[in-house]
């Protein structure tokens, strides 16, 4: 039987790697700040399609991009490299 992936399980360094952790954190912070991919692209000075590749994990964020985005969001760059906590399930 194939294990079912729980969408509430965040990526981990061990299972998914640092690039996946950073991508998840960037997506979360962008959403939390109401930023669209186009907004993120302008902040980090790359195309919207390049942001899409990074959001989906098909390309990794560079250190410079992480630094520019963190500065714009008012957080430390290292905060984007820490695995996110597991989300709680909605009690529907």
UniProtKB/TrEMBL annotation:
InterPro entries: Cro/C1-type_HTH, Lambda_DNA-bd_dom_sf. It holds the Pfam family HTH_3. Residues 32-80 form the HTH cro/C1-type domain. It comes from the Bacteria. This is HTH cro/C1-type domain-containing protein. It comes from Georgenia daeguensis.
